[in-house]
Design brief:
By secondary structure, the protein is mainly α. The protein has two domains: 106 residues, no CATH class; 38 residues, no CATH class. The chain has seven helices and no strands. Helix 1 runs antiparallel to helix 4, helix 2 packs antiparallel against helix 3 and helix 2 packs parallel to helix 4. The longest helix has 23 residues. The protein is rod-shaped, with a radius of gyration of 25 Å. The chain starts with a helix and ends with a helix.
């Protein structure tokens, strides 16, 4: 959203100076960036394209239309894959992806949910067998199946 505002500030010095007919385009571009579903994103994109074809836009608005097309296709691809769309902030992208893992860990409803989830994830992928001890030759998964049923 900062990139959209920057494009308008470069030409009009302030967001408040944007012509009235282009304010709707500014709002649609911001809505497109924060869209959470493919349907919402597609509706914003179609409205932006419609405004582009019907109005004589300023240079800033033409840049915003071009930028919004790029964002739309990137976000649509991510939304279809089940990820949260791109943002301007790398940390926001990282935490948006981590949010799904944290929600899964919270679903255990225990104090050590995340550590339990990560431990189980590690153990489920650990196929290496014990080399010593009474469980020599067994993997942690086969040991757990034998010992706990």
């Amino acid at each position: 959203m900062e990139n959209v505002a920057k494009k308008y500030r470069e030409e009009f010095d302030s967001i408040e100076n944007i012509p009235l007919q282009e304010v709707e385009l500014y709002e649609l571009a911001n809505d497109l960036i924060v869209a959470e579903t493919v349907i919402e994103s597609t509706l914003c994109h179609k409205n932006i394209i419609k405004m582009d074809s019907e109005m004589d836009l300023s240079k800033a608005s033409k840049k915003v239309v071009s930028y919004s097309k790029k964002i739309y296709f990137n976000n649509r691809r991510l939304l279809e894959m089940g990820f949260t769309p791109e943002t301007n902030n790398v940390m926001e992208q990282f935490f948006a992806l981590m949010n799904d893992i944290v929600n899964q860990a919270r679903s255990f409803k225990i104090v050590d949910g995340l550590s339990n989830f990560c431990y189980n994830l590690f153990v489920s992928m650990n196929k290496k067998c014990f080399n010593t001890g009474p469980w020599r030759g067994f993997s942690p998964l086969s040991r757990a199946k034998i010992k706990y049923g």
